[in-house]
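re: that chain from earlier
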Amino acid sequence: MFVRFCTAVAMVGLAALATASPAGAQYPSREACAVYDFPPGTPEYRLCVERELEMRRLGRMNREYGAARVLSDSERACTYYGLTPGSPRYERCVRREVELRSPE
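^ sequence. v structure.
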């Protein structure tokens, strides 16, 4: 009985992975760019989503990834997304990036 249950769960999981769309994978990036106040549908928004998604594909960093590097890489990423350093949108982005890059 337990084996059948595990098999069923595995099949459902594989089916979900097979039907996952690239647009669904972009959802966190779209949300992030909206949080950074890029108006959806603008060239700046599309660029932000593209670049934010690219950064997400790189994944979390390991525990040896130092705090100073987390901050500098976060600042660099936010500039790369098209945000102006020192602006409230930029500061919000840096806080979010630091959180995402910090080891769990």
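Residues 2-19 form the longest helix (18 residues).
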